[in-house]
Amino acid sequence: MVLRMNLARGVPGRDHLVWEIEVSDGAAIREILYLDAHHGKIIDRVSGIHTIFRQIHQRFLDNTLWREGDNFPFTGSDAQNNAEVNELILGSLDIHTLFANLSDGDFLSWNGNHAAMHSIQNFVYDDCPNAFWNGSTTNFCIGMVADDIVSHEWTHAYTMSTHALFYRVQPGAINEAYSDIFGEIADRLNGRGSDEPDVRRTDGGCPSTDSSLRWQIGEDSVFGTFRDMWNPACFGDPTRVSDDRYACGEDDSGGVHTNSGIPNHAFTLATDGGGFNATEISGIGLTRSAHIWWRAMSVYQVATTDFPDHADLIELACEDLIGADLTDLETGDISPDRISAAHCIEIAKVMTAVEMRLPPDQCAFEPLLAPSPPSIPESRVIFSEDFSTDPFSGDRAWSVSNVGVYDEYDPRDWAWVDTPPEGSAGDGAAFAIDSVFIGDCIPGSDDQSGVMYLDSPPVTILETGREAFLVFDHYVATEGMWDGGLVEISVEGRPFLELPLSSFLFNPYSLILKNTSDGNDNPLAGRWAFTGSDGGSVRGSWGQSQVSLDGIAAPGETVVIRFAFGVDGCNGLDGWYLDRVQLIEDGPPPRQGSGRSGG
User: What is the predicted pLDDT for the residue at 365?
Assistant: First the structure.
């Protein structure tokens, strides 16, 4: 081949007839050498490994055994520890290379920007055997270091950086599935471990009967295979949404390690094809499916992506890639494989076969807020706010304030949003954020425990002989039992008091927030609150709460209604939305005159 010197620098250079030679140890070294074809002299060299910085620690983060640039293989301990340390070195490279190649070199390391990759071997942990990503390091108990498990845990880091899927119910199951998917891809490509025979599995076959190791998770760990992506039912996991194996309970964060079987099954069917649920699917191959799932992950999916969203966004990603150049998963070069409209038809068939858009009706999930509130008869509205426009501008007189627990608290207030969640009756809402992206729950570092207040303008209770009610439409999706909101009232300027549970006539508070003794620094800890989300979901739905003010505020008294939303120092979900707030009085309206005097 002909190599022009200085081409990468964009300046003139001489042409050389060269031999291109790849030098690799099949593991931690890969360089491309360009040798002058006449003299054999090296005239250029290019690293075949995207910039990577790995550190391997033992038991604790401050006990570093190996860092980038040290000799490989590592030989500083006994045989088992040496083997696990070396597998962590190689496994980190596997996943770094895979995502670098998928992104054409644009997404480097787990944060997309060259972050160091720290792994802790023989981690000190009470719940061994296990392996996990904790937000900054991958951590492995003895015996849990296998190539697919290492790449699985690192994929959690990539998922966190690309779209931070909530680790609960369906988003959490998709999170787990992504780690299984890319962990298994890295395993199949790296040429290490027990990967042969690697042939297509039989429809409905299990590892105990199939003569193939394809799509098995953990086969190289000391505990053997513990999950099967091809036929999740082999290990008691669901293969489609209506499966009676679907986990409906709260254990395991809503069944994230169980219900991941459904998106796992979808990926393997898309890749290898097969017959399932009265549907025949033609596989599109590993390169195509990996690029589709990566595009959905890196471009479209968000923290709340559930199974129906996942189906929509995988299909959209497929359509985006029709006719586009795809990079080879191993080399990063342009692959001969391309995606056509016919391939996207197969993807759509997969999503139908695994019932990705259907609800798990067998779980009989209930919304947090019950629908169909009773009417309050013969009522008269004495105050109403629908938040259709910004309530904090002009003379609307709504006010906000906030209080943090620790000095590092970042002040934030209730805000007005013009795009409330689906199902809102209006064009806007007041919103208190419950963000998953801020805080670390470490006082003195970045603990974001605090409370936000939203206060109504003063309203006077008008009539004797009428009962006054507070009615408000709202939407709740918070970190259950840690973050939540409640309603307080101030009468005649006296201190605010919480509206008691006994005053609620419909849709009362859902749960008591965890106490400070449980580690909850939320200023509302230990109090009844609206907290959590709809059953089986990380989302809420709109509902109406009704509260009697009988015995709380008397005719002629002026009241201010306060909506208080408190959070602990980290984690979150979405927040609390208010769509309509009304104070109303029941009973017959007062007799009205004609407006003319008699005589």
Answer: 97
Within this chain, do residues 570 and 433 fall inside the same structural domain, yes or no?
A: yes
Mean local confidence (pLDDT), 280-297 = 98
- Report the pLDDT value the prediction gives residue 393, as an integer from 0 to 100: 78
- Count of CA atoms in the C-beta half-sphere (13 A) of 508: 13
pLDDT tier at 58 (50, 70, 90 boundaries)? very high
The residue among 296 and 26 whose pLDDT is bigger is: 296
Give the C-alpha separation, 580 to 261, whole Å.
41
Last residue of some domain: 146, 162, 178?
162
- Do 141 and 94 have their domain in common? yes
Q: Which residues 6+ apart lie within 8 Å of 594 measured at CB?
A: none
Query: What is the token pair recorded at 197?
Result: 């025979």
> Residue 41's pLDDT is what?
66
Q: How many CB atoms are located within 10 Å of the residue 497 CB?
A: 12
The size of the chain, in residues, is 599
Question: Is the separation of the CB atoms in 156 and 149 below 8 Å?
Answer: no
Q: Are residues 167 and 262 in the same domain?
A: yes
CATH number at residue 409: 2.60.120.200
Task: State how far the Cα of 265 lies from the Cα of 287, in Å rounded to an integer.
Answer: 17
Residue 595, in any domain of the structure: no
DSSP string, 190-253: H--SS--S--PPPTT--TTT-S--TTEESTTSTT---EESS-GGGGT--SSTT-TTS--SSHHH
Q: What is the CATH number of the domain that holds 152?
A: 3.10.170.10
Q: How far is CA 38 from CA 17, 31, 41, 57, 409, in A?
A: 8, 21, 8, 47, 67
Pairing of strands 468-477, 543-548: antiparallel
Clarify whether residues 358 and 393 are in a common domain. no
39, 123: one domain: no
User: Are 484 and 431 in a shared domain?
Assistant: yes
Helix H or strand E encompassing 529: strand 528-529
Cα separations in angstroms, 560 against 14, 354, 458, 563: 80, 52, 5, 10
Based on the structure, what is the number of domains in the chain?
4
What is the tens place of the pLDDT at every residue in 149-165? 999 999 999 999 999 99
Shared domain check, 116 and 230: no
198-241 pLDDT, tens digit per residue, is: 899 999 999 989 989 999 998 888 888 999 999 999 999 999 99
In angstroms, the first-to-last Cα distance of the chain is 113
Q: Which domain, by its residues, includes 397?
A: 380-585
Choice between 43 and 51, residue whose per-residue pLDDT is larger = 51
Q: Is residue 370 part of a domain?
A: no
pLDDT at 391 over 60: yes
Spell out a b/e string for 472-483, using b for 16 or more CB atoms within 10 Å of the CB, else e.
bbbbbbbbbbbb
Last residue of a domain, one of 142, 162, 182: 162
- 394 pLDDT exceeds 80? no
- Do 269 and 405 lie in one domain? The reply is no
